[in-house]
Write a structure and sequence with these properties.
By secondary structure, the protein is α+β, with helices and mostly antiparallel strands. The chain is built from 24 helices and 22 strands. Helices cover about 35% and strands about 10% of the residues. The strands form 8 sheets. A 5-stranded mixed beta sheet has the order 2-1-5-11-12, covered by helices on one side. A 5-stranded antiparallel beta sheet has the order 7-6-16-15-14, sandwiched between helices. It has a two-stranded parallel sheet with strand order 3-4.
Length: about 850
Amino acid sequence: MSDEPQPKKPRPGWASHKPQAADTPDDARDDTRTDEAAPPRSDESDAESGGKDGTGPGTAGGSRTAGVSAKKAARDERHAALRARRTGWRRLVPTWRMVCGAFLVTALLVVGGFLLGYALVQIPAANALATQQANVYLYADGSVIARDGEVNRENVTLSQISKDAQHAILAAEDRDFYTESAVDPQAMIRGAWNTVTGKGKQSGSTITQQYVKNYYLRQEQTVTRKVKEFFIAIKLDRNQSKDEILEGYLNTSFFGRGAYGIQAAAHAYYDMDASGLDAGRAAYLAALVNAPSQYDVVAHPENRALVENRWNYVLDGMVDEGWLDPAERARLTFPVPKRTTHSTGMSGQRGYIVNIVKQHLTANKIVDEAALDAGGYRITTTLEKDKQDAFVESVNDNLMDRLDKENRKVDTYVRAGGASIEPKTGKVVAMYNGIDYVKQYTPNATRRDFQVGSSFKPFVFAAAVENGSRTQDGRRITPNTRYNGDSERPVQGWAGPRYAPENEDHEDYGDITVSEATDKSVNAVYAQMAVDVGPDKVRETAVGLGLSPDTPDLDGAGPSIALGVANASVLDMTQAYASLANHGKHTPYTLVEKITQNGRDIALPERRTRQAVSREAADTTTSVLKGVVEKGTATAAQTSGRAAAGKTGTAEEDTAAWFAGYTPDLATVVAVMGQDPVTAGHKSLYGAMGLPRVNGGGAPAEIWGQYTRDALAGEPVSSFSLRLQPGAHESQPPAPDSSGGPSSSDDPSAPATDGSDDPGEGDTGSSTPGDDSSGSDTGSGSGDDGGTESEGQDSGGTGTGSPSGGQGGDTGDGGTGTGGEDTGGGATDDSNRDELPGPGGLSGALDGRRWD
């Protein structure tokens, strides 16, 4: 082999660009051919095939290899020719094979992505905002008191939404809702077209998609949220009916003015329920959904024309869909919403009411606190709006408007609390808790930190009658039992430390009846009576009538229990007095008439009425308390114009003044309290309103009188029907150690007759004035199980009946009787005298003085 470099063998497909001469040897020309054009040389062919005799390896394989090479060469040549032809812009246009391939890949990706997304995206739990609702508190007549909660929403069922409201929303947002799928591309295109052509802004999303966004997702505009919304809407459409989705959408949409859901919106704009929306109002609310703030024509009057166009678009859509009669559409005018609706915040009395009702619901295990905080409850209270308003007005007229907080510091201490209950039903119909919840948070009707004073004394007497109690010398306690009423007289029979209470102004009364002692609120008499009855029995009676057993300072008070050292609430005291008014029957008070959650009724606990004390004990107490109003310390309460019974009270150091009273139809307690607005400490009320002192016969009785008159206006005037304890009308001799005046008994040594030692034997009635028009009392009685029940009427100038003014006389064993005629010399004013039984009855008016 030569040492000179040998030429390299050309690569397959290589061809020389130099022309070959015709006489060039074959071997030379072969070196310049392409693979496709050059047949294999014999020696090479032989080598590949293993020899011409076929004995070498791969004879058939060689042929196949040659064929493949030939095809590849032909293909490469075609591609080269095609590239030579596709020059310039033609190179940018894909071939049909490329288009088909791309479409196929895209389709596979879309289908795969859809299946993957449908499998991965699940319907989530509702977001926190969508589930929050307000609790709605209503008066007994259904008007709204307040709404509480961070979100103003009240879910309602579709049946509680008017058809006009449903159709208006559909006309505004998605007219094909009931026939389309959850995600409708046509709706998106239609919405975009309507917006572009000026037919009003319309969402491209279906109602289902909007509901998904409101209820399950958040409002951010992101691709992720849109993708989730797409898949959740599809799944939701398979799991829920169209009605369920529409209901959810109507309850979650935002309408402006802080209102979520159509029920809250109906109240915010028109002060009505969603069930009452007509086509015009419904169309306006439907128009709000797109732009709640801008479309509020009260807040933005400059947008009135734009809003009316949207309103007309909604109504026209209702006509087009057959949901609204064209003639009715033609009659509609734009319903301008109210500038302001009734406040549903916490100001005024509303905040107090909401908190007290909440405590009532949780304390009685009607709704637990966590569920109540979650919201969604519609609570109809027993409060009556007219009575509630009358209470507030009376407090303002008789107390708040008389304060001068700038010039009298003591006037800044003044607080007031009140409550009113129907005796027969136990329903709380009105409460007063303070001037404004946002200024004074403590509810004065339910607080238990002020002494009730002498307003507690009726419980002592009721306990005495109920237990057949006797004095230390063995005399039965009745309205005419005489006690020593001297101030600071030590109580007898008490094993504890010496106790000698003072009377107001240290006044001594000497020998005095229980009725007179009640009229004048004589502390010495009632402290002794508490010992005679037993402080434990007094406590038992007070709790039975309605005071809470947890009342501070009610236990272990000893004789002082009679003076009202207990710190009972106004509401508890009202309940106890209501039991007296209901002839001793106690019905636990209630603040809730009905409660529902999302249209479902919540069961209320059963309230059972029980006989706390006998009718004779309660009615005899009432007969004594009537004298307090007619000629005792509470004559100011006569402004009610009704037969009334009650008792005044004053706490130690005049930190609180009370009047607790009732008519046959209504029991009400009012308290005026002194509290430092900075330190919250109790303060005396001396000098308040420019008066030397504030007592129960002043502002509290005046508030009570005006409120009771207004609260019962238009209702029939009722009289007390009383059944007294046996012998209640009989005078009794004074105590042996009494230093008072002589007894006026006809027979001082005579014991009670007709089985009167047994408090349960026989009924003795007292008359009740039915028409207080002049100056005499007439009474009659008839036997009923050994007793008497009588009704009296003030109608003339002389008295027929007992000298005390109208008692029907002593009876026994079914008999009847008529008392003697009062023929006194006229020095005593009998025009306001109670029909207290027995000779030697109470004197008339007390010369304008008030004792407490």
